[in-house]
Amino acid sequence: MSNDHPVDASRERDGATPAPADLTRRRFLQSAAAAAALGSVPHLHAQNAPSQNAPSPADTATPPPSLAPAQPVKLDINGREYVLHIEPRVTLLDALRDYAGLTGTKKGCDRGQCGACTVLVEGRRINSCLTLAVMHEGQRITTVEGLAGADAPSAVQRAFIERDALQCGYCTPGQVCSATACLTEFAAGAASAVTADVRSPPAQLSDAEIRERMSGNLCRCGAYANIVAAVRDAHAASA
Q: To pair with 99 at 20 to 30 A between CA atoms, which of 15, 21, 24, 152?
């Protein structure tokens, strides 16, 4: 008599105890589904977590209004009075270009390193990007637009043209203003770093003196030889 019993399919359909092979298959499928569900939890958490590169609320917030509002500032520029409504933080360079409309003064490095923004304040050359406009109320400011006479360019401007002391021309306004002050300083007896005896006025404006006195103005085009020659000619014309 055989011990093998046929499987009653009707009992399985009616909810009876499943066969061992069928039970193992069901448990496997249930375990796989549970593992898949648990594996998706960290992924969903990572999607909902803020990105490290995402801007913080502080970065995207609207900046607060300036604590020092614009106020009228009177500037004497090229012999003319300008009343500019500017914030105290505005540099003299930006005031000249953006508010007074005098765009001859150029913005180069905006760090006081290139000299493109050189202007004259009370006859002395300064980098206008390093000073605030409000600091110069009541002082005489001269830009490259104010150097020429009524009918002719200044001696320095003429010398720069005749010597072709420029290429792109972007640094030229600052070069011309600096050269103008350079000649004034030499005439006043001011010594430089290359003057042989700083206790005495320099005897002559040599090329070495010119290069040293103009060293704060950079020319990326490399027109230095012609710039030195132009300053030399302007000095000879004014002697």
A: 152
Q: What are phi and psi of 43, to 5 degrees?
A: -65, -40
Per-residue model confidence as pLDDT tens digits over 50-91: 556 666 655 566 656 666 799 999 999 999 999 999 999 999
When mean pLDDT is compared across 7-16, 79-88, 204-213, the lowest value belongs to 7-16
Quote the number of domains for the chain.
2
Domain end residue (candidates: 114, 146, 178): 146
Structural domain includes residue 1: no
HSE, CB side, 13 Å, CA atoms: give it for residue 115: 19
Burial of residue 1, with CB atoms counted within 10 A of its CB: 0-12 exposed, 13-18 middle, 19 or more buried: exposed
Q: Is the pLDDT of residue 99 over 50?
A: yes
Report the CATH number that the domain containing residue 220 is assigned in CATH. Answer: 1.10.150.120
CA–CA separation, 169 and 108 (whole Å) = 12
Shared domain check, 229 and 196: yes
Question: Residue 213 CB: number of other CB atoms within 10 A?
Answer: 25
> Domain end: 146, 168, 184, which one?
146
Question: Phi/psi at 138 (nearest 5 deg)?
Answer: 85, 0
* Residues of the domain holding 199: 155-238
Single pTM value for the model: 0.71
Q: String of b and e for 140-155 (b: at least 16 CB within 10 Å)? A: ebbbbbbbeeeeeebb
Is residue 25 in some structural domain?
no
Q: How far apart are CA 102 and CA 37, in angstroms?
A: 70
